[in-house]
Amino acid sequence: MTQLYVAVLSLAGFVCLMLAMPKHYSFVTQSTLGSRQQHFLRTAGWLILLLAVLLAVQHWAFDEGLVVWLGWLSVVGVALVFCLPYWSWQAKAEKRPFRRAARSEEEDITEADSSPEAGAPARQPWQQVLIAGCMVLLLAAVVWQYLQSPVKPLLREDAYQGRIGPWAYTLAEIHTDAPEVEALQLGIKEFLIRFCDSCNAEISIAYLKVREPRTLRSAGMSFSGNRERYIELAIPPKATLDDGLWLTVVSKQGEVFQQRLEIEQISPAMAEFIRNQS
After folding, report:
1. Taking Cα atoms as reference points, which of 261, 180, 192 lies closest to residue 231?
2. Domain span holding position 270
3. Phi then psi for 120, rounded to 5 degrees?
4. 175 pLDDT exceeds 70?
């Protein structure tokens, strides 16, 4: 649904900026654009585009949100360019019989020299087809790139939504495949966690570990980052599913909150890895 909102807002912003141009305004509305109307449409257009990019960044974070917004700008921009010439209110030119008044050779030469298109070669049909083909290819490349871009881990349907203490969070494995076996034959699994925006100002540090930690010093690996926190979790060789995943969060006031998570619920691939190594 957010995709639709960003697309509609981008289209609305482009339409306002287009109508802020006297030529396009008179073409669409068959009336004259006033200075107040022009200022209002121009301001509204930029504000609507700003709202679209803020919505995209708020939903997908800055990096992916900006790409999504630029992609929709390209799509609606090309659509607007192709649809505008077929506007239903466009005044149709009256067909008149071709007449040529007798003119002197000197008048023909003077008119040819003063014409704004004098000396400019006429665009051939194959050139128009080439330009249209390039625009279609550009649009297809944007759509293909968007469809091929993977969903961010914290936005996937399998991301775990939870609450620890007074804070809500989302936890997800970065990749859904089996953990990678690295040095010392330890399996490594990557996770991301994101607390609510107001929670980040209250949280000092967060840890994740297989098995219940005895003390805060053994709380496990700490997440790094600010908004989306990242961790590479080492899986002990003798771990079992009953050990569970333990999330520890420390507030800036020193309060400690702990929560046990089911491994199968957070990462089925990690659960299968633990079964195979036991």
Report:
1. 192
2. 154-277
3. -90, 125
4. yes
